[in-house]
Amino acid sequence: MKSRFEEKGIFYHEDKILKIDMTGNKNPNWKGGEDIICLNCEKSFHVVPARQKTAKFCSRVCKGKWMSRNLRGEKHPNWQIERPKTKYCRKCGSEFFQRKTEAISFFRKRKFCSKGCADVGGLRYEGEAHPNYKAASRRKAARGKHGAWAHAVISRDKAICKECGAKDVELHAHHIKQFSEHPEKRWQISNGITLCYRCHWQIHELKIQNDDALGQNHVIPSESYKKGKQSRRWEGFCEWCGTFISKQWSQRKNRAHHFCSKSCAQKHRIRHLSDETRQKMSVAQKDAALRFRSERIKAHSQSGTFLQNLRIEKDISQRELAGLIGISQGRLSELENGKYKISEKITVRLASVLEVEISVFELIAPTH
Questions:
Q1: Stretch 53-65: mean pLDDT, rounded?
Q2: With contact defined as beta carbons under 8 Å apart, do 307 and 335 qualify?
Q3: What is the pLDDT of residues 261-300, one digit of tens each?
Q4: What are the residue ranges of helices labelled H in 20-144?
Q5: Which own/partner pairs from 342-351 qualify as long-range (CB within 8 Å, at least 24 positions apart)?
Q6: 301-341 per-position pLDDT tens digit
Q7: Where are the beta strands (DSSP E) in 138-243?
Q8: What is the dihedral sign for C-alpha 340, 346, 347, 353?
Q9: Closest by Cα among 331, 347, 340, 350 to 300
Q10: Which of 55, 166, 171, 324 could disulfide-link to 161, CB 3.0 to 4.6 Å?
Q11: Shortest CA distance to 149 belongs to which of 181, 176, 183, 173?
């Protein structure tokens, strides 16, 4: 019986270790293999039996070079048949082509031949046309309207606080007539006055104290210096879990309760609901769930009935149609009975097999 060393081809001779070559077919565990010619470099390489049917290249480098030469244009598996080749600029009307390094998805969206045409003819959302437009917005950016107005007011007052005469401190431009109540005077320089940050806070503190008199507890704000600007912050604790909170002073105004997260706020709200409110919410939620389910079943039933009538009109059996669109007959039966919604992928296959437009299915498709 051979020892485990002899099985591995290791022998001892005169206190020296002799190792026999056990590579390839000399190894007792050898299972054979095959020599294959690389499609790129045409060199022979050996593969194990498990890779005899799939191996085509001797290395990844050869595979990449071969694919870059042969999988081009219509030969590429992701080739798009309706690929746009040329387009016309919406500004100058000249014809332009897809760049060599430009993805087809970007070329489809491109509307202009160059940046110059895009800058002149492109749509720039400004004012009310912008999706994020806010009528009473106060942009405190240095380049915005507020920044330009504040610079003009402070320059007019020689960078000196008109309340205490302080200079060489952080200065704010304050609206004499309130910003929200007098929109016509928002950007008039005559409606502004220069104040240091402490005087400015003191003026707005009067309104905060009035809010506190309505039921909120008066809290002295803490001052902080961050990113070159003085700021005020409110510091307290979450009323539900007791976590320490530090937020901007403006965020604590007109709020009777403070929480560290929406989760704590929701838990606090539910805890303090009355029994009558709880009962109304429970009934309303059940009614909404039943109504949603009935509407969904009705919509699915309409689409399923339409599909069944269309299949009968084309004289195709359930088994034949299921095989053509790649699903089981049982699944098709469930779709016709309105048990499930017809997915977009199945809709495209049905439109192709039944020779109808996809828009026909979209008209009767359920919205739930």
A1: 92
A2: yes
A3: 888 888 888 888 888 887 877 788 778 777 777 777 777 7
A4: 60-70, 104-109, 115-121
A5: 342/303, 342/304, 342/307, 349/324, 349/325, 350/307, 350/325
A6: 777 888 888 888 888 888 888 888 888 888 888 888 877 77
A7: 171-175, 192-196, 222-226, 229-237
A8: negative
A9: 340
A10: 166
A11: 173
Burial of 25 (0-12, 13-18, 19+ CB in 10 A): exposed
- Contact in structure between 239 and 258 (CB atoms under 8 Å): yes
121-174 pLDDT, tens per residue?
Answer: 887 777 777 777 776 665 555 556 787 788 888 888 888 898 888 887 888 889
Strand ranges for 197-275 from DSSP E: 222-226, 229-237, 244-248
Closest CA to 322 of 305, 339, 308: 308
Domains, the chain: 24-57 (no CATH), 86-118 (no CATH), 145-214 (no CATH), 232-267 (no CATH), 278-364 (1.10.260.40)
Whose tokens are 């704590």? That residue is 264
Lowest mean pLDDT among 11-15, 68-72, 308-312, 338-342: 11-15
Place of tokens 């191996």: 55
- Joined tokens for residue 295: 């509407």
